[in-house]
Structure formats: C-alpha cells, structure tokens
Design goal:
Length: about 450
C-alpha cells in the first residue's frame, strides 16, 4: 500500500494490505509493499520490528486512523523509549501496520431503518455490499438474492420462511464455515449452525443493544458475515503474513514484536502459528500482545478442560516455543463486543451459565484472558499505571485486567476500541522489553 507518516512526527510506518481472498494488494504503483519492506529490512540495521493488526470493522481510513493513534501513543512513551534505547544497543525500530478488509456489516444496515427509508439502504445496495464482503461467487450471490428478497417482503418476520431457511443452510456451506467446538479453528469454534436458532438468538430483546439491531430476517446473515471475517483473519495470518514473517526473519535479524486487536489477534496468532498452527519459523518472535482479543479463551491451551475438547487451535505456538518473550493479553468488563456479542455468535441460544471458578465453553480472550494453561505458565494481573513495573518473564503468559483503563464506551462495542491510552502503550513496551531479559 504505502509508507505513512505519523501526525506531528517525522516517524514513518509501512502499511501492507491484503484483499478478501487473503492475497496482498497489488494496486500500489511502487510495487508490492511486502517487497519494499523486505528490501528496507535487508538494507537497514533495524533492531526491532513492531507489527500491528487491527480487528473487525476496519476499512482503509479506519485502519490508518487506528494505527496513527496506536503508534503515536506507543512512541509518546518517553520513559519507555529511553529504556528501549538503553536495552537495545543502537535502537532502530521499523513499524508496520496491516490492513485487511474486515467489515462484517455497515452502520447503515443497523438501527431498524427499512429498505428505501430515509437513512436506510436499498435492497440492491444491500445485496452488493454483502456479495463484496462474502465473496461474489455464484453460489453466494444466489443465496443472498433470496435472503434480501425475503427481507424486503417481510423484514419484521417472526420466523424464517422455508426459502430463507434453505438459503441460509446453502450460504453457510458455500462460505465453508465449520462448527467444531472449543478446540476448532477460530472461524469454527461455535455450535453447529442452525438458521432457526440463529434467527431466534438475533431477535431476542438483548440482541439489540447500543443501537445495533441484529434481528429480522437478516440477523443470521450478520452472524455468518461475522464468522466469515474470522475466517478471513485466519487465512491472511496463516498465509501471506506467515510467509512475510519468515521472509522478514531471513532479511533482518531484528527482534519481531506482534500486537493484534480484536480479530487482529487471530491475524497475528496465525502469523506465528502458520498453516493449521504448524508452520515453522526461522526463530521465535520476541513478544506477542493480544489486546481485547476476539478469539477463544481456550485457543492456546494444550488441553482444554472440557470433555473431549483436546488442545486449543494455537496451542503449538506455545508448545513449539515460537515466542521467546512473554505473551500478554488484556481484558475489560467494559468491552461489550467480546463480552456480549462473541458468546452470542458462538453459542446462539445455548446456556451461557458456568460454575463459579470455571470458565465458559465459548468466551473471548478479551473477556477472560487465555485459560487452560499448565500450572505456573500463566498469571492473572491488574493492568498498572503507565509507570508500573510488571516484571514480565520470558516464556510466560500474562492476562491483564484492564477494566480500569479500557473503560471509555463508544457505541455498541463498548470500550472495545479504547486501547490508545498510555497504560496500554506501556504494556506493549513492557512486553517488548521483557524479551531482552536473560
């Protein structure tokens, strides 16, 4: 895509983009951004490479705005920056942001406006927008045509019609979405898809919150779009970005630090894990930070403590020693996106209850941290002020309760995106700096 300059700064970062099929975008007149970054890495003596991935609902302008905020907050931490210069001789960082199309639905579709109503969206535009997001194959478009037509006929239906039900079954199959339970890949850690259950779940009173009206005929379509974005995140991470990471390691001996937010935690986990979680790296990455992760709390567990569950999908990242330093997560009770919508999308109408002292089958890292680890490998801590000393150690997992600082609610997602404060920036520095400890 391009090199971007941070506002009010002379610091630049590289923005590398991928399309809906997981292929790097080729619309940059100066050539593939991956090639430019690799060439730069081979020519310059970088000591540290920091790569960031945004999460869901990120178009290009939104991604740029997020990276401008995150990286500015990161570099504004003068004490941490000074410590980095001391800890890393001849400190010279390379900053990289990833863009991937992650918009599961548009705001114009939510809030109850009907087709053709002021502020609403036409049936034709709705069909085009979903075809673009889900992959405009003949099978997908045929299903979407049926669903949009059914919604236009009866947007406030109390149950699915037979044509809509059949279209949803066919669409789920055309999208290649699985249902494998807690140990499944991130795009399949859900109960078996049932259109009627999905319709009922998204039409319950609680499914309309903070201005997001998830119900009506299109409720299940929004759920399938959500799962498609998770699948896309994994495809991009395990594919093009995993290859890019290996090429970076060959081009430069710098320490690599990864940070993901929301679905971006799937992207960076897949980047380290590789295809099916088993791709080899030249050497371990130096640190990994998963901020308000929309990925299963069991995904890094070597043995999920649920009957017949097995190992978490990304368990080999830790088991194979692919992270030299710490793996740090954040969670917040103020994050409605991972606290409410994530379990709703996974379990539908199934019970969310779980015994005190235990954890649910379907829950997000951003709500519970990483769970199911061997004794002594993980620690639950409170997020500290921006001058706090965490004492992170290499090879360990730390779940930080950031409810005090990840607290500013904005719209239906709650505080899901309130991650540009100095406390979170300090966490990223502490995570990276811990990779230098003996």
């Amino acid at each position: 895509m391009a090199f971007r300059q941070l506002p009010n700064s002379d610091v630049r970062y590289g923005l590398i983009g991928f399309d809906a099929q997981g292929q790097e975008r080729t619309d940059d007149p100066d050539g593939l951004m991956s090639h430019r970054l690799l060439q730069l890495a081979a020519q310059e003596s970088f000591t540290n490479i920091f790569l960031f991935s945004h999460g869901w609902r990120g178009d290009v302008p939104a991604a740029i705005a997020q990276y401008d905020r995150w990286m500015s907050a990161f570099l504004d931490r003068a004490p941490d920056l000074q410590l980095a210069k001391h800890r890393f001789p001849r400190f010279k960082p390379l900053l990289v942001g990833v863009h991937w199309p992650s918009e599961p639905w548009g705001q114009e579709e939510l809030g109850g406006a009907g087709f053709g109503a002021p502020g609403g969206i036409s049936a034709e535009d709705l069909l085009k927008s979903y075809a673009d997001r889900l992959g405009d194959s003949p099978a997908v478009r045929q299903c979407l045509s049926v669903l949009v037509d059914e919604a236009r006929r009866n947007a406030a239906a109390e149950e699915l019609s037979d044509p809509a039900r059949d279209a949803y079954v066919a669409l789920n199959e055309a999208l290649g979405l699985g249902s494998g339970g807690a140990s499944a890949p991130p795009d399949a850690d859900r109960v078996e898809f049932d259109p009627d259950e999905a319709f009922a779940a998204t039409n319950e009173d609680e499914a309309s919150f903070g201005g997001w009206n998830l119900g009506g005929i299109l409720g299940p379509l929004r759920l399938l779009s959500y799962w498609t974005m998770k699948k896309r995140a994994r495809t991009i991470g395990e594919g093009g970005l995993h290859t890019f990471l290996k090429n970076l390691q060959e081009a430069n001996a710098a320490r690599v630090h990864l940070m993901g937010h929301s679905f971006g935690c799937i992207v960076v986990s897949g980047m380290v894990g590789g295809p099916d979680g088993h791709g080899p790296l030249l050497r371990p990455v130096s640190s990994l930070a998963l901020v308000q992760g929309a990925v299963s709390l069991w995904s890094y567990s070597p043995q999920i403590p649920l009957s017949g569950a097995g190992a978490g999908y990304f368990s080999h990242v830790l088991g194979d020693g692919k992270i030299a330093g710490p793996l740090v997560t954040t969670r917040s009770k103020n994050d409605d996106a991972v606290g409410f919508f994530y379990p709703l999308a996974s379990r539908l109408r199934g019970s969310a209850a779980f015994a005190p002292g235990s954890f649910p089958e379907y829950g997000a890292i951003g709500a519970y941290g990483i769970q199911g680890l061997p004794a002594g490998q993980g620690s639950d801590l409170e997020m500290l002020a921006e001058d706090g000393d965490y004492g992170f150690e290499q090879g360990r997992v730390y779940n930080l309760n950031g409810s005090q600082y990840i607290a500013k609610k904005e719209g239906a997602s709650g505080a899901h995106s309130d991650i540009a404060g100095p406390q979170v920036a300090h966490v990223l520095w502490e995570t990276a700096l811990a990779s230098t400890k003996p």
